[in-house]
Design brief:
Structural class: alpha/beta
Number of strands: 9
Strand content: 5-15%
Order of helices and strands: EHEHEHEHEHEEHEHEHHHHH
Number of helices: 12
């Protein structure tokens, strides 16, 4: 293997496609697969080889990078390529998965002699497109030289949380971080909806908190997205945000913690999705404030 590994990218949605482009910009060879091939095809113009099956993408690759809907999907897809997985291949699992799913993924990796890295990323569409994600990673020291060019291409920094991917150390930190992100997103929608209902100019609220400890760039960005009606293309979709919220609630429950805010956020995302906003930006949880 050269210092620029061949990467099998499995999953080319909002995040995966952006990550793939940055891998190509860094000079890495990329074989891209997506269940809906049309979502992977645009990467061909950037130099990726688009494949029809996960096995075609994985065969001969040095690193398998999964960026799929959830842990169960990641395991299902990698199993489709099991016959061509070589011992020693690195599996960087960047899908946001549940705490109970990481040990299953790590067990599959062990069975096939793969070097497993629990490696979710923090960031949405724009950071992904700019190669400015934060990679949260847990995995063995031996093998990091292979995966480092991948993490360096997609992220501004890699935060190592441990040397055992099966411990889910990186995923645990990701769920904690996402609990805050989703809480702020839900609150942004509620504060705009309440201001409008009370005939208060939302910008008056932002003037009120400007420069103080309650001010926050992310809150302003999501609120402005709502006010501008700019829900598409999404930075992070309502449906995926709801999935993550449910994973957070389950993680808390499994450790004896009740997360009322995360549970309420999950319900808001579910209502917004049911109203037809599943594929819009997660700021569209705003619409769950209304019955219609």
């Amino acid at each position: 293997m050269t210092d620029k590994p061949t990467v099998a990218l499995l999953g080319t949605g909002i995040m995966g496609a952006a990550m793939g482009r940055n891998l190509l910009k860094a000079g890495l060879t990329v074989r891209a697969w997506n269940r809906t091939r049309a979502k992977a095809e645009p990467l061909a113009a950037d130099g990726a080889q688009v494949t029809d099956t996960p096995a075609e993408a994985v065969e001969g690759a040095d690193v398998v990078l999964t960026m799929l809907y959830d842990g169960a999907t990641a395991l299902e897809v990698v199993r489709e390529a099991a016959d061509v997985l070589r011992p020693g291949v690195v599996w960087a699992q960047s899908t946001t998965a549940g705490l109970d799913q990481i040990p299953e993924l790590a067990a599959f990796a062990r069975e096939h002699g793969l070097v497993f890295y629990d490696a979710p990323v923090l960031g949405t569409r724009q950071p992904a497109e700019d190669g400015q994600l934060t990679v949260l990673a847990a995995g063995p020291e031996q093998g990091r030289e292979t995966v480092a060019p991948v993490f360096d291409a997609i992220g501004a920094r890699t935060l190592w949380t441990g040397d055992d991917g099966s411990s889910a150390a990186a995923t645990r930190l990701k769920l904690v971080a996402n609990s805050w992100v989703l809480a702020v997103t839900a609150a942004a929608g509620e504060v705009v909806a309440l201001a409008q209902a009370l005939d208060v100019d939302p910008h008056g609220f932002f003037d009120l908190i400007a420069g103080g400890p309650l001010d926050m760039g992310y809150l302003r960005a999501k609120a402005q997205l709502i006010l501008d009606g700019g829900m598409t293309p999404p930075s992070f979709a309502v449906d995926t945000a709801g999935k993550d919220a449910r994973l957070i609630v389950a993680a808390g429950a499994s450790h004896g913690v009740r997360l009322d805010v995360a549970e309420a956020a999950a319900e808001r995302f579910a209502r917004a999705a049911a109203q037809g906003h599943a594929d819009e930006d997660m700021a569209a949880a705003y619409f769950a404030s209304f019955d219609k």
